[in-house]
Write a structure and sequence with these properties.
Blueprint lengths: L11 E2 L12 E4 L11 E5 L13 E3 L2 E15 L2 E5 L3 E5 L4 E16 L1 H8 L19 E3 L2 H20 L4 H24 L8 H13 L6 H7 L4 H12 L3 H17 L6 H7 L5 H12 L3 H10 L2
């Protein structure tokens, strides 16, 4: 990739880098026209992406991201879980996943794409659900690659970077074919490590999870989500239990608690303000909610995280 095309990875990061202005996290969008014409996929080494978010700031992506760490050690917090990061670790990020990287000195092969790049071509809005590492309640967001698979991944990755550098008229088709192969190979290794996933779940649960991601900071009632989905609360919770082994209410509370944890770990915002940003008008009620969900008070959680390595 030439110098004029480097550095595009997080080129549409929101100007306000204060996480409190964006609900506790920075949102990072995909820049479709960075190469002149619309392209919904990209591939580059992190060392060629100067704006890659590696400062430890919590952030979410609006697109899918696969990162193979090739240099550096540390941690990668992904979707509420903290993972070891070292060469050979392959991380899978989905739109809306909360991320925070602490890897030094970081380099890696990064492949990222929008859902449109895959779903439009295959005429299937649930196509990516076929891959276990992109499903809700996956067992892990990381896979440690054996040397052979790591070399194969990097070979296909370099094919993508070369295709993007030349950007022929049929680049979309070529890039989609290589990306699909990468997804299939990664899926086989993932299943070998974590076991075969269940069959793709119901569209109802998928729509519910999307609504939760959009409205959790303002709407805490399962009834309202069920109303938007034109089903009863009981039917919605039954569908969630069948697919995710948790009720709709539990899923909603976990999402609120996860955002609360991220807010408490950053800046000087008070616990009361965290609660207010998440739709809790009564600070005492928020404190009780947080203790019930997390197991400790907001202040105790903040102190522990501040002193943890």
């Amino acid at each position: 990739m030439d110098a004029s095309r480097a550095g595009w990875y997080f080129s549409t990061m929101a100007p306000a880098r204060d996480p409190l202005r964006s609900g506790g996290t920075v949102r990072i969008d995909f820049h479709r026209t960075k190469y002149g014409r619309a392209l919904d996929v990209d591939a580059a080494f992190v060392r060629h992406l100067p704006s890659f978010e590696r400062t430890g700031l919590p952030h979410v992506l609006s697109f899918y991201d696969i990162l193979l760490v090739t240099r550096g050690t540390g941690t990668f917090e992904l979707d509420g879980a903290r993972h070891e990061a070292r060469p050979g670790a392959l991380f899978f990020s989905r739109p809306g996943d909360l991320r925070r990287l602490s890897i030094d000195p970081l380099d890696g092969a990064c492949v990222f794409f929008t859902s449109r790049f895959i779903e439009d071509a295959f005429r299937d809005p649930r196509f990516l659900d076929r891959f276990p590492f992109f499903r809700a309640h996956r067992p892990s967001g990381v896979l440690f690659l054996e040397p052979v698979l790591k070399r194969t991944f990097l070979t296909r990755f370099r094919e993508m970077t070369e295709e993007i550098a030349s950007l022929r008229s049929d680049a979309d088709e070529a890039l989609r074919a290589v990306l699909w192969e990468l997804l299939v190979l990664s899926s086989r290794a993932y299943v070998a490590r974590w076991g075969a996933p269940r069959s793709p779940g119901s569209p109802l649960v998928t729509r519910f999870l999307a609504l939760v991601e959009k409205h959790f900071a303002r709407e805490h009632r399962v009834f309202e989500y069920a109303r938007r989905l034109s089903v009863s609360p009981g039917h919605l919770s039954a569908a969630c239990r069948d697919e995710l082994r948790e009720s709709a209410g539990r899923i909603l509370r976990k999402r609120c608690a996860r955002e609360a944890r991220m807010l408490l770990e950053n800046g000087d915002i008070t616990a009361a303000d965290v609660g207010a940003r998440l739709g809790f008008e009564d600070p005492a009620y928020f404190a009780r909610f947080f203790r019930r969900e997390v197991g400790e008070t907001p202040s105790a959680y903040r102190t522990r995280r501040a002193t943890s390595p």
